[in-house]
Amino acid sequence: MSDTSAILSMPYIQPAQAQKHVTHNEALTILDVIVQLAVTDRNRTAPPASPAEGDRHVVAIGGTGDWAGRDGAIAVSDAGVWAFHTPKPGWQAYVLDEDVVITWRGGAWQDSGGLPSQVSELGINATADSTNRLSVSAPATLLNHAGAGHQLKLNKASAGETASLLYQSNWSGRAEMGLAGNDDFALKVSADGSSWTTALSLDGATGVVSGAAVQSDALDDTAGRLMSVGAFGLGDTGSGVAAPSDDADLCVAAGIYSFTASGSNTPVGDPSGGSLMVLRGGAGTARQIYVAASGQRVWSRGYLGSWQAWVEMFTQASIVGTVAQTAGTPTGAVVESGSNANGQYTRWADGTQICTNGNAAITTNPAAFTGTVTSIDGNKLRIGRWF
User: Fold this and answer.
1) Coil, strand, or helix at residue 26?
2) Which of 6, 17, 66, 190 is the most buried (most CB within 10 A)?
3) In this structure, how many other beta carbons lie within 10 angstroms of the beta carbon of residue 103?
4) Does residue 315 contact residue 328 with C-beta atoms inside 8 Å?
5) DSSP H/E element including 24
6) Which of these, 317, 269, 308, lies nearest to 285 by C-alpha position?
7) Is 296 helix (H, G, I), strand (E, B) or coil?
8) How many angstroms separate the CA atoms of 232 and 242, rounded?
9) Kindly report the CA angle at 204 between 198 and 205, in degrees rounded to 5?
10) Which residues, 6 or more positions from 129, have their beta carbon under 8 angstroms from its beta carbon?
């Protein structure tokens, strides 16, 4: 039989032992040191000069003097000498000058804050259960950084599962965001906790946004929705409507386009091409404004079951210029004037023409007339039509 206990190395009283009280008191002294263990400090390498009876210290690494070779041991002042107790794994001590608890593990004293800890359920001022295994009841919860930043991670087993944040009102769901049933990030809302609307959904592969908070198409004018590409003159959706084309008749989606003009639906008299603005007024109605590449000629037309004829919009640049017509429809400027050796002429877009020759009679028309010509003041003024 051993003379000491296996764990705390306390001496046993032997059979027929004399002075049994000595052995008994030695065991009590050991218990007095290590039970409810509290030490003054743990950073000394040399013993204090005038220790009080019963003072306890953890000998720091590199012990000197009476503490030499006792690194990590519990040193206790006993009757003017130092007694030492070697810690065993799992011993804990409260360090008075640091207000921390340390534990002997891995051959060294370590802060208990570093101990691995696992609990199946944890309630902080609240009751946890098998589903809500961590439950906190508090005015606020702080998750602070340790270093430069901090991440909160929500992991799910597979794409079809859910990793989300759920916001409740009186224990009834009102909003949820995260990965709910797929790998697309979504924001959902509910008025009653049972019927849910996906307000926004971000495609996990492309980042493209959809949902009830986004316009359903280029003509959707629901208040509060986010405008999408192609809506009310901002680009083209490229889906469900014809893309920009050389034929202006095909540009039916609201937007602003630039292309080379050709085809039967471009404005009569368009020199080469330009830009087209399409305005939608609602289902089945539209307006088109066409600006020539020069920027000095503008046409417009409307859609009322079918596209109406183009009408040129006159500007400062097109009031005075070359007057022209096609099949009786004006296609040039509002007024034109000129002169040559035969005199002067002025033409209007409605077909009226006036010719003069200073104060002399006109012998040859400075510009050609069509049809009947009226001569005034001995042929000094001629009025008629140029078409």
Assistant:
1) helix
2) 190
3) 19
4) no
5) helix 20-34
6) 308
7) coil
8) 16
9) 135
10) 121, 135
